[in-house]
Predict the structure.
Amino acid sequence: MSDRENQFESSAVQDENHIIAERRAKLAEWRRSGQAYPNDFARQNTAGKIADLYDARTRDELADSPVEVSVAGRIMLKRVMGKASFITIQDLSGRLQVYVSRDQVDETTYDAFRRWDIGDIVGAVGTLFRTRTDELTVRCTEIRLLAKSLRPLPEKFHGLTDQEQKYRMRYLDLITNEQTRFTFAVRSRIVQSIRSHMVAHGFLEVETPMMHPIPGGATARPFATHHNALDMNLFLRIAPELYLKRLVVGGLEKVFEINRNFRNEGISPRHNPEFTMMEFYEAYSDYRQLMDFTEGLIRHSAREALASECFEYQGRTLDLGRPFARLTIVEAIRRSHPGYGVAQLGDPEWLRDRLRALAVDPPHGAGLGALQLLLFEETTEADLWDPTFIVDYPAEVSPLARRSDRDPEIAERFELYIAGREIANGFSELNDPEDQAARFLEQARAKEAGDEEAMYYDADYLRALEYGLPPTGGCGIGIDRLVMLLTDSPNIRDVILFPQMRPE
C-alpha cells in the first residue's frame, strides 16, 4: 500500500471514529431520557404490503378514505428541512418514505428526530398520502427511535464495495445491497420448493446425526472433535448417506434430508468447508429412474425460483427445459476433444502420459477408469455448459455404488453437470454386504497407503446391510451450487450467508 493510500485509510478511520464518538454521545443522551431501546412498538404493516395494497390509489382516494399504518425499519435516507423532513425507511420487503413535520408530532419529538442518524431503526404511525411527486408516503402522527446505529453505513451510492468485507460483514451487506437480499430470498424459495416437491412425491423428511463415530458416505477429509462425557473422538458429517440407507433398511422406503455437511478441504469459488446438500433415497429404484426424477426436480426449482426454465448465467443462456444430455466419460471427452481417439482413451499408458503433460500426477495403481475420470476432470468438466448427466463411472472410484451387470468395472452411477460444475451425484446403491465389505477393505488399504480422503471400514453399516437393503437408488444435490445457478452468482460464498473466512 502506498503512503497516499495509507494516509487516506488513516483519515477514513479517524473520520469513522469521530462519527462513532458523536453517535455514542447521542446514545448517552437517549439513555438519560429513560426511553432507550424500547420494546413496545407494534408494527402492523410492511413497506411491501403497503405498496401491494395502496400503490394504485390516487391522491384524492387517499384523502377521502384515510389509511392509517404502523411501520418500522431502518433509516436509509434523510432530508431535514425547517419544520418538515422526509426519511426513507427500509424493512425486509422494501422501502417506504415517511414525512415528519413539527405540526404533526410534538416539538420535543421533532427536535429529537432531527438528531437521529442514517442507520437508526425507527417506528412510525400515520396516514398514507401522495407527495407532489406522487410518491406514496406516511404522514407521521407518531415516530419513535427503537434502536441506535452507532456505526455509519457505507456511502449510499456505492455501498459495501470490498468483496471480502461483504462476506465477513454479511449483516452490513444485507442492509446496503438489494441484490444480496434478493439472492437469499431466492435461496429460501429454492429450498422450500425442493422440500415441497419431495413431500408431494411421497418422501419422508428425516434428520440424521451430524457427529459420526466413523466418517462415511463420501471420500473426503473430515473435521474431528471430541465428546468429553463419552470420552470418544467424533467426526463432523461429511455426508448423511450411510445413515439414510440404514433407514431404508428399517423400512422407511422414501427418505430425504436437507443437510449441512463439513469437509476439511480447500476453499474455492465452488467449495466451502461447510455446505448444504439434499440427499434422497428410494427403495425399488435405480440410477436411471433417479436421473429422470433429478431432472424434474431441478426444473421445478427453476420454475419456482425464477418462474422460468430458461435464464442467463454469467452472460450465457441456460435452458433447463430441454432434455438433459446423457454421456459416458469417454463420450464426453471425445465430444469436447475430438482429437482424442477411442484407442488412446482405452490405453492406460497414453492416459498417464497425457495427464502428466497436464501437470497431473496419477495415483499409483489407478486403473483405466480412474485415469479416464482424471482426464475428464482436467479437460472436459468445465466445458459441460448445458445440463449433462455423465454416466457409468468406474467402480474403483465409486465405493458405495452398485456394479453394472453388463460390466463389473463400471458402476451404475451418474453426476449431473450444469455450467461446468457438478450439481448432483447419484447411483444405484450397493446392497450386497459382501461386495460392500470388500470395497471398504480396498478403501482401508488406500487410507493406510496415505489417501486421507479414503473411507473408513464401517462395521455397523455392514451389519445393517446384512439385514437386507432392498434395491435402492440414492442421490445428493448440491443446494449451494444450484442456488448459484439460479441467482447468477459466480462464487459459492455469494450464496452462503456466513462463508468460512480467515480471522481478521
Notes: The first helix runs from residue 3 to 32. The chain has a mean pLDDT of 93.
